[in-house]
Write a structure and sequence with these properties.
Length: 153
C-alpha cells in the first residue's frame, strides 16, 4: 500500500442521515482532487455502514471504477468510541491488496487514525489539521507524510 486515505463523509441531513446536495457536491469535488493524487492506481474502498458514509463511498467508487464499497463496522465509531486499534487490524489485512486504501468514515477516524497509523506502523509522530466534511487526510505510507485534501479551489 502506497497511500492510505481517510475520507470524512459529506454534509448530511440530520433527520435522514443521508447526504444533502451540498454533501454530494463536496464528495464530487474531493473525488476530482483525489484523482489527481491517485492517478490510475488500484484502489480498494471501505466505508462505515452509516448512510452518509456509504453514499460518499459510492460516489468515490464510481469515479475509481470499483464496485460497491464494503461497509465495515470498524469504520463506525458508534457512541463516540474511537478505537483505532480495531481499524488498524482491517488496514493490515488489506494493505497488500491494493496500492491505495480509501476508508470513508467519520470525524473521529478521519482526524485521529492517520496519527495513530503513522505512529504505530511507521514509527513517526505527526500532527495534522482538522478534516471537515467532504475532505480527506492522505497518508503516504512510504515516507510517513500526511496532507489534508480540502475543498478550497
Amino acid at each position: 500500500m502506497k497511500l492510505l486515505i481517510l475520507v470524512r463523509h459529506g454534509e448530511y441531513a440530520e433527520d435522514t442521515g443521508t447526504l444533502t446536495a451540498k454533501g454530494r457536491e463536496q464528495i464530487g469535488i474531493l473525488t476530482e482532487k483525489l484523482k489527481q493524487i491517485i492517478g490510475g492506481i488500484r484502489v480498494i474502498i471501505f466505508t462505515s455502514p452509516a448512510p452518509r458514509a456509504k453514499e460518499s463511498a459510492d460516489i468515490l467508487s464510481h469515479a475509481f471504477g470499483g464496485g460497491t464499497p464494503d461497509a465495515h463496522y470498524k469504520l463506525s465509531p458508534g457512541e463516540d468510541n474511537f478505537d483505532p486499534a480495531r481499524l488498524l487490524d482491517l488496514v493490515r489485512i488489506y494493505k497488500d491488496s491494493a496500492e491505495v486504501l480509501i476508508l470513508v468514515t467519520h470525524v473521529e477516524y478521519a482526524e485521529g487514525f492517520p496519527k495513530y497509523y503513522v505512529r504505530e506502523v511507521l514509527g513517526e509522530e505527526i500532527t495534522s489539521g482538522g478534516v471537515f466534511t467532504g475532505e480527506a487526510c492522505v497518508v503516504n505510507c512510504e515516507d510517513g507524510s500526511t496532507s489534508i485534501v480540502n475543498l478550497d479551489p
